[in-house]
């Protein structure tokens, strides 16, 4: 899995020497891992001997997405929120210190977001991520915070644990998060947490969020705050529907 994830997440196809340098696995062991992954169609070896993701992963991704209960539960609420705001609406789930985009309703405007379903973004500088982190129990939140590396994507990105913790306190107090161009320049969003279980983040529960996102020239901070009630209501409705079991949900945050 470590080798597969390394190749899939790489910005370019990797050769054996690249993978060996990054994993430090014994050469014989690494050869066997790569051979098995290629044989199973999970990786593909190109003519230049570099490795890239295999097409079998598309089948896995499609099945995981199409059968996901949270996405099915959330979709009517996402559609309603999109109709109310006219901007792009996202659904994401927390995985370790990252947010995975699970669904998206595209804006009706001509300028749209480049986000994609399945994309992974840092939790500490995205509205979805901060909303999800804000509802984690203290022990689980401390574990996540200890693993975050604060890379400055923009001038507004949090650069320390203290700055993030202060922001999370504000988010808990008002029930929604604002991403004021913290991850991408000229992109803003308002997000609210989605959580189920007796205690947010416990096994058999889910932790994630929904957001309304738009370009900064079109979406002011004031507009995001005006939409915050709609976003909170939609997030609470999704949390309720998932918790009461409209569909069995099993998406533990790991």
From TrEMBL:
Highest taxon of the source? Bacteria
UniProt keywords, alphabetically: DNA-binding, Transcription, Transcription regulation
Classification via SUPFAM superfamilies:
GAF domain-like (SSF55781), Winged helix' DNA-binding domain (SSF46785)
Q: In the UniProt record, does the keyword DNA-binding occur?
A: yes
Which GO molecular function entries does the Swiss-Prot or TrEMBL record give? Answer: DNA binding; DNA-binding transcription factor activity
The record's section on Gene3D superfamilies has: 3.30.450.40, Winged helix-like DNA-binding domain superfamily/Winged helix DNA-binding domain (1.10.10.10)
The record's listing under InterPro entries reads: GAF-like_dom_sf (IPR029016), HTH_MetabolicPath_Reg (IPR050707), Tscrpt_reg_IclR_C (IPR014757), Tscrpt_reg_IclR_N (IPR005471), WH-like_DNA-bd_sf (IPR036388), WH_DNA-bd_sf (IPR036390)
According to its UniProt entry, the protein's GO biological process terms are: negative regulation of DNA-templated transcription
Key word Transcription regulation present: yes
Record domain IclR-ED: where:
56-244
Q: Which Pfam families match?
A: HTH_IclR, IclR_C
> What protein name does the entry list?
IclR family transcriptional regulator
- Organism this protein belongs to: Rhizobium quercicola
The beginning of the lineage is: Bacteria, Pseudomonadati, Pseudomonadota, Alphaproteobacteria, Hyphomicrobiales
């Amino acid at each position: 899995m470590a080798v597969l994830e390394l190749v899939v997440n790489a910005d370019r196809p990797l050769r054996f020497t690249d993978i060996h340098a990054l994993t430090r696995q014994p050469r014989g062991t690494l050869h066997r891992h790569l051979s098995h992954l290629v044989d199973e169609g999970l990786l593909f070896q190109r003519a230049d001997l570099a490795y890239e993701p295999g097409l079998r992963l598309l089948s896995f991704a499609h099945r995981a997405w199409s059968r996901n209960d949270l996405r099915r539960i959330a979709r009517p609420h996402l559609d309603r929120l999109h109709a109310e705001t006219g901007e792009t609406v996202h659904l994401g789930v927390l995985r370790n210190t990252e947010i995975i985009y699970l669904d998206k309703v595209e804006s009706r405007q001509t300028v749209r977001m480049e986000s994609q379903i399945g994309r992974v973004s840092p939790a500490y500088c995205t509205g979805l991520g901060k909303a999800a982190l804000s509802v984690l129990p203290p022990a689980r939140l401390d574990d996540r915070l200890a693993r975050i590396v604060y890379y400055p994507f923009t001038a507004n990105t949090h650069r320390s644990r203290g700055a993030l913790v202060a922001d999370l306190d504000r988010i808990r107090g008002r029930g929604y998060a604002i991403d004021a161009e913290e991850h991408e320049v000229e992109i803003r969003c308002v997000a609210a947490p989605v959580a189920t279980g007796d205690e947010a983040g416990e096994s058999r529960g889910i932790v994630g969020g929904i957001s309304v996102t738009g370009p900064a020239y079109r979406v002011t901070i004031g507009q995001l705050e005006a939409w915050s009630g709609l976003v909170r209501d939609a997030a609470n409705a999704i949390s309720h529907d998932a918790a009461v079991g409209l569909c069995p949900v099993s998406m533990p945050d790991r």
